[in-house]
């Protein structure tokens, strides 16, 4: 379906008009860095690392701007935007946006990526989360995950429990189902020559096993602040719908991200570097 000589609408390789907000109400953003050693897989807030640090303070391995599991699974030039949002008296919340371009693998099932990062998925379900202050809700997919934390001798010392919340969107649609995105992509591409970027939004919230549903309050506070960013992004992506990509015979040559957004962290070019945050 991606054979030569076609024109596609929707600007699938254009710049992603997104900047992660420095603040979302009382939440303040910080970049996060990841240890590339999969045995360590520690993550650090930039403020917790020496300035310009390139090595993991725990094990000395290289630091990257995406997790080792993501680096392994994502194609190069995948646009990824990520910040940890912090607020006194609340657990740190990590928000990530990943975008597809012409390739199909940049948005993949998080179930795969999370397990590649050493997590067990203990439960999975769809939840309607508050997305505005007026009672509006958004269906999101929830994965309850747990990862054993080991000391330097490899002994399990604790469990890192989180909820991983995600949904998928393009300028026209939002869904929690990967099969729905794939079906729409095939249909839009084949029948409409419409090939917008799909975005994959995820929010990671630590889960206190003594208060197993407490994360819902955090999500109901956080998502209504983040969701307007997604709405604006979808509108901005939609404004590019008439930009045409002319495909050559080899469509993979079009899989280039040409954006210059400073918030971008590309798998192929890790950004500069930072104490443990949740994955
Ligand atoms: Zn490390």
Provide a descriptive summary of the structure in words.
There is one protein chain. This protein is of the alpha+beta class. The chain has a domain at 75-247. Helices cover 19% and strands 30% of the residues. It has four helices and 14 strands. The chain has helices at residues 68-73, 110-116, 178-192, 215-238; strands at residues 7-9, 23-24, 27-30, 32-35, 43-45, 63-64, 80-86, 93-99, 120-130, 137-150, 156-169, 174-175, 199-206, 244-246. Strands 2, 3, 7, 8, 9, 10, 11, 12 and 13 form a nine-stranded antiparallel beta sheet that branches. Strands 5-4-6 form a three-stranded antiparallel beta sheet, with no helix packed on it. It has a two-stranded antiparallel ribbon with strand order 1-14. A hairpin with a 5-residue loop joins β10 and β11 (156-169). The longest helix is centred in the last third of the chain and has 24 residues, at 215-238. It is globular and about 55 Å long. The two termini are 37 Å apart. Residues 258-279 have low confidence and may be disordered. It binds zinc ion. The site of zinc ion has 8 residues, from loops. Residues 35, 37, 40, 42, 56, 58-59, 61 line the site of zinc ion.
């Amino acid at each position: 379906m991606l054979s030569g000589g076609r024109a596609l609408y929707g600007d699938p390789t254009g710049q992603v008009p997104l900047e992660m907000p420095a603040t979302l109400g009382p939440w303040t953003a910080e970049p996060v860095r990841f240890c590339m050693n999969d045995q360590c897989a520690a993550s650090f807030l930039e403020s917790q690392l020496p300035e310009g640090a390139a090595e993991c303070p725990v094990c000395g391995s290289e630091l990257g701007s995406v997790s080792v599991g993501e680096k392994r699974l994502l194609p190069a030039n995948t646009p990824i935007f990520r910040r940890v949002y912090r607020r006194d008296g609340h657990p740190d919340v990590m928000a990530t946006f990943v975008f597809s371009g012409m390739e199909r693998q940049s948005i993949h099932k998080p179930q795969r990526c999370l397990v590649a990062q050493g997590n067990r998925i203990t439960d999975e379900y769809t939840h309607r989360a508050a997305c505005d202050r007026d009672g509006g809700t958004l269906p999101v997919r929830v994965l309850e995950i747990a990862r054993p934390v080991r000391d330097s001798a490899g002994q399990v010392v604790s469990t890192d429990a989180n909820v991983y919340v995600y949904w998928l969107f393009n300028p026209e649609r939002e869904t929690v189902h990967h099969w729905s995105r794939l079906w729409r992509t095939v249909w839009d591409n084949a029948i409409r020559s419409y090939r917008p970027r799909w975005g994959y939004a995820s929010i990671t919230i630590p889960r206190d096993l003594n208060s197993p549903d407490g994360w819902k309050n955090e999500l109901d506070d956080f998502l209504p602040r983040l969701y307007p960013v997604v709405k604006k992004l979808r509108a901005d992506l939609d404004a590019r719908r008439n930009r045409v990509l002319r495909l050559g015979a080899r469509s993979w040559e079009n899989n280039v991200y040409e954006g210059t957004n400073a918030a971008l962290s590309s798998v192929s070019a890790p950004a500069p570097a930072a104490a443990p945050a949740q994955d």
